[in-house]
Amino acid sequence: MAGNWKMYKTAPETRAFFEKFAPLVERSEHCEVVICPTYPSLEVAAEATEGTRVEIGAQNMYWAKEGAFTGEVSGPMLTAVGVKWVLVGHSERRQYFGETNETVLQRTLAALEYGLKPIVCVGERLEERESGNTEAVLVAQFREGIARLGSEQFAKIVIAYEPVWAIGTGRTATPEIAADAHRALRAQVLADYGKEAAAAVRILYGGSVKPDNVKTLMAQPEIDGVLVGGASLDPIGFASIVNF
Ligand code: PEP
Description:
About 45% of the residues lie in helices and about 15% in strands. By secondary structure, the chain is an alpha/beta fold. It has one domain (about 1-240): TIM Barrel (Alpha-Beta Barrel). It is globular. Phosphoenolpyruvate binds near residues 167, 206 and 227.
């Protein structure tokens, strides 16, 4: 159960969140709990969650170890402050910051090289769904952005299916729509990595998940967890999602 804070919360606000949130998920042993704050709050978040069940993720990273890449942050810089996970290819990065399937692959490879666990995001835009191209888009994102990983590398990633039209819009995919997309992705995993990998890979659903719709989404056997944006900003609300 992962939370993406997008560009919200200062470091003091981050500290205040975890004071409330960490005790509420102390006994949530049914899942892993990950929160992805902004870069300036990562260290505070990692300190505030030390010794708790919560792990911290970044929202992006660059693939080089270091260098003249103004404004970028590398994998070793993230692990040095206690970060364990990283979102890769979030649709807002694809939409506003020129992320492509190729750069998604490069970031994923770098994340694995530096010991971070990538949550790789895929999902179709509204016009792609309406023109009947959802599956083709997902397959292309998978084949170009993920399927070039070796089997051992693939076993370490988590996939998040996030239909772009459902992100931040209040328009959640129905559990059936989400399950169909997850099935299509799992079929790709089966084709490229085999039966065991298809059974083991965790595919999260993301897109307007809230405390009141998490149960029906999680009732779909295809959905292994959720990636939550807006609703992860409230400690009580996100704890109720984690503890659905
Ligand atoms: C997200 O940012 O990944 C997301 C799913 O956002 P929201 O839950 O606000 O739709």
